[in-house]
TrEMBL record:
Pyridoxal 5'-phosphate binds at G262, E296, P297, G298, R299, Y397. The keyword tRNA processing does not apply. It comes from Acetobacter syzygii. Specifically catalyzes the decarboxylation of meso-diaminopimelate (meso-DAP) to L-lysine. Pathway: Amino-acid biosynthesis; L-lysine biosynthesis via DAP pathway; L-lysine from DL-2,6-diaminopimelate: step 1/1. This is Diaminopimelate decarboxylase. Belongs to the Orn/Lys/Arg decarboxylase class-II family. LysA subfamily. Homodimer.
Amino acid sequence: MADLPVYTDADPSMAELLATHPHLTTDPMCGLMFEGVPLNAIADAVGTPCWVLGAGTLRQRLKRMQTAMVDAGLDVSIHYAVKANDHLSVLSLIGQEGYGVDIVSGGELARTQKAGIAANRVVFSGVGKSDAELEYAIGLGIGQINVESAEELGIISAIATRLGKQATITLRINPDVDAKTHAKITTGLAANKFGIPFDNAAALYARAFTLPGLKPVGFATHIGSQIVSTAPYHAAYARVAELVRTVRASGLSVEVVDCGGGLGICYRNEVEGQPEALAGTIRAELGELGVRLSIEPGRWPVGPAGVLLSSVVLRKQEGLPAPFVVLDAAMNDMVRPSMYDAWHGILPLAPQAFNQPVTPTHVVGPVCESGDTFARDRLLPPLERASRIAILDTGAYGAVMSSTYNSRPLATQVLVENGQWTVIRHRQTLEELWQDETIPAHPTGKA
């Protein structure tokens, strides 16, 4: 597992960030543009903080991933990982483009059904599926349940039998492979809570064939998130291939291998994970097995498709070596920097800002936590009160992880498509913060 990031090289400049984010451009009159739409125009209309998601960018990245698999001679089903961004507009787009989905809760399953995605295109992962969630999924006839433990296997068998159904399952294997990513998003080590230990998998797969209500079809694996090297994938898929050959040699059929997701993006100056390289890895390790293949991307297609707009509340500088720029966005809006020490690019919206000198600046939020920090010593132009900025690469694990901590309403969400923009979630009102709360009637205490 990787340690917390300690950067010794220079942060990318604003020009370098623009070069690695082709959906962002600058206009001498309008300032920062997103898929051809002035971000200032959106902020003028709906205020800040505000999430902006680009449908075109999302479509293009999904298409590139699909094309990479086809060009490698692979027939790979793409199941978008709903946890990355579960907005109905995103799920509707996913369904319209013909992709499936990977879910980890009954709530996510309900969202996919609301968005019109067929149940047989849904894969259900997760270590703690409740009885109610499994009943819902099996009753719908979802395409696949990834079983994470021997204990869960028995539970699914009992529920399917009681419902008079047959649940299609794979065993999610923990290959004990270090993905060299952040400790909080690695999932393929033996110490992690995910998946079935590799050494137990063959025997448990054989047992699955003896249990009623189950249709075992193969194996799944997922080793982590924000992976930018193919080496961990090679190691994990080689172990899965070994397992497939072992169980086939014992006379059992294997029809499916679910390769998981986790392909990383370029937040700072990483070499972004390449779908073409992933496809080559899948072909090299699994391509000769004659199985149906699938992947579960989330961050890679949707992460770069989003930005978070924010305005400067104040600039705190007197007596300080570097100013604190306090935003109206906070850790309750985007928790990744606080939770993962995540680095996100920051660009000003004003056109003149791109020609001004830059100085080290601390960018923070207003929440009463020292962890409410977006950047330290970031080289930025002067950001005075009411200046606006865009925090980049927030399409994944951004709005979906927001909370109302400090009684801060959830921010507006906007979708940009074909040069137009639409509000897809209105800003939560203060009254809506407590609309589901009640104050119980208390006895007066008087005799």
